[in-house]
Amino acid sequence: xxxxxxxxxxxxxxxxxxxxxxxxxxxxxxxxxxxxxxxxxxxxxxxxxxxxxxxxxxxxxxxxxxxxxxxxxxxxxxxxxxxxxxxxxxxxxxxxxxxxxxxxxxxxxxxxxxxxxxxxxxxxxxxxxxxxxxxxxxxxxxxxxxxxxxxxxxxxxxxxxxxxxxxxxxxxxxxxxxxxxxxxxxxxxxxxxxxxxxxxxxxxxxxxxxxxxxxxxxxxxxxxxxxxxxxxxxxxxxxxxxxxxxxxxxxxxxxxxxxxxxxxxxxxxxxxxxxxxxxxxxxxxxxxxxxxxxxxxxxxxxxxxxxxxxxxxxxxxxxxxxxxxxxxxxxxxxxxxxx
Length: 339
Hints:
Elements: H1 24-29, E1 57-58, H2 70-77, H3 83-87, E2 97-106, E3 109-119, E4 122-131, H4 138-142, E5 146-152, E6 161-167, E7 172-180, E8 189-198, E9 206-213, H5 215-219, E10 222-231, E11 237-246, E12 249-256, E13 263-271, E14 276-285, E15 288-293, E16 306-315, E17 328-329, E18 334-337
Antiparallel strand pairs: 1-5, 2-3, 3-4, 4-7, 5-8, 6-7, 8-9, 10-11, 11-12, 12-15, 13-14, 13-16, 14-15, 16-17, 16-18
């Protein structure tokens, strides 16, 4: 499966033709990771505040649904609808998650908000949708997309999201969405409201309200300052600023010396034990961005003490919106300590 294609706040369009289906054996080996689509925003403008963040996410992309046989449905049904099982995380996430487990049924569609985890600058959401008419064809799956709007402490602002979805039965689809949030204090508890709409139709909402905090996960998140840099082909400098690690995964935050980043960036290498490791571009906003561990390549061993990562980059498309996979090395390997 091709990777490193994500929704960017710099209005880059993504061509979904890059993705292909995977069968069960591949799914069992790897985490199913699909792009959920570009952000959708309401027509009216909302003032942004430090205590507010909103994500307008396409819960289900028009193509991002993996087709499974009936035997596969039976196996997937045995797995609970939670973030850890969907992402293939073996660690216990129970201390960090808020279980909502509420369903709303309207117009033949039941939307269930299963659970959420607040992880510093992301709200991770597990949701399932069940239709009375089912999803028997690819066309019906493509038309099943939901728009979601996130409110924190009663306020809404524009944001971004990515994630994945899988069809788990003839009438049910499960999704995990990562919504960007900003300027939140992990020590505080926030009142969250989520409103789901059929794609492009804002007359009927499936609404959920709950409270959550990221305090527990923040206490178990390790942050390591970085001081490495490399140069992109256009002469701009990328500085690696911070490495973070917790039970949800690892991230690398970076910044550019220019106002805008024109390249998709990937870090690829291995840990000091020889295990392959790579980080893909997860977010861009202005001259700042975030890379995430690519579980399809391999997990970082708990015994590892450092990473050796080489930077690669490819220019974003200027016209077609179709991403190129011709990544080129743009610097020497950098060492990232893990302790």
